[in-house]
Amino acid sequence: MRPRHAATPSPIMTVVEVAHYLQVSRNTLYKLIRQRQIPVFKMGSDYRFDGDAIEKWMADRQAKG
After folding, report:
1. Which segments of 1-65 does DSSP mark as H helices, in order?
2. Distance between CA 1 and CA 50 in Å, rounded?
3. Which of these, 14, 20, 24, 62, has the minimum number of CB atoms within 10 Å of its CB?
């Protein structure tokens, strides 16, 4: 298995991983989730993120800004 670079999202990411990747607090990430501003899905009671969807979300936000 090849090592994953810290700046490369994995296919499925946790709240902690996405917060670290985006360099925001978990509280900020939960706020984005509540406001439905970031692509997310649930697995049981836990939030999960698709790494590709997060990359696209970031690119879309950069294009708008």
Report:
1. 15-22, 26-34, 51-64
2. 20
3. 62
Q: Are 10 and 51 in contact (CB under 8 A)?
A: yes
In a domain, 45, yes or no: yes
Whole-angstrom CA distances from 52 to 27, 39, 56 are 22, 10, 6
- Where in the sequence is the domain holding 47, given as residue range(s)? 12-64
Residues 6+ apart with CB under 8 A from 54: 9, 13, 18, 21, 22, 38, 39
Total number of domains in the chain = 1
In a domain, 37, yes or no: yes
Query: What pTM was estimated for this model as a whole?
Result: 0.81
